[in-house]
Target: Metallo-beta-lactamase domain-containing protein
Amino acid sequence: MPVIKILTLMDDASSENKALRSEHGLSFWVEAGDRRFLFDCGSGPATLYNANRLGVSLKDADFTVCSHSHYDHAAGFRDMAEAGFGGKTLYTGAGFWERKYAWNGLKYTDLSSGFGQEFLREHAVTQKICRGLLPLADGCWLVGDFPRVHPFETIPRRFVKGTPPETTADDFSDEICLAMRTERGLVVLVGCSHPGILNMMRHVHEVLKQPIYALFGGTHLVEADEERIGTTVNTLCGMGLSILGLSHCSGNAAEKYLAAGRSVQTCHMTAGDCIAIR
Model:
């Protein structure tokens, strides 16, 4: 079984490596067997800057995965493609091109990726869409179309999609995650987990019929109370979770809860942080 290496290129929090930049966003560089790829791209050129400082050759990427089309995960792909990096295949969920906004009851703030299908054509990038379960390589899958079985995992009403003023609540049906098989179980990468981290992981667990050993990325527990955080962690442990690497939108409350000696190893994955799992 090959070693899986996950290196954070971008996160909201600053790391011990003060040469690196932080911004609201997420990006991982993944090495799994003979595959090299990006999972999310951050929101701009700072991800490229960090990769350069870390000695990561993004021109060697086989492909790029965007977990969903919010700017803080996808907008950095524009910089990648313009530099000739990130590979010539972009994996997304269905509905990736729908415009996304934050709405405060009066104004709309565009949260979209900032590029479209014409941009991909201009840079000879092929889009491949994950519907349900999409194998990427032996022991590596994209997963989407998550059933909503946990009613407390709600999506904030401010997130909408469409064309103002004709918008609807964003159900984040475009969101996907990545699962990789190891000797100990699945290693899963998530972007923001807008459909609900438990909804997502339960579906991954049931579809691939393997325990979830490690989970990395944004769990969107930033607005959750302690009861929901506790329920989430305990349920994930019931699926086999041993390692939880929080990033981006996971929130201080979740990190504080996990720091109190829970039954799972945890860390915050800031830029420059790397995990290696066999």
Summary: The helical segments are 46-53, 71-74, 76-82, 117-122, 197-208, 226-238, 252-259. The longest helix spans residues 226-238.
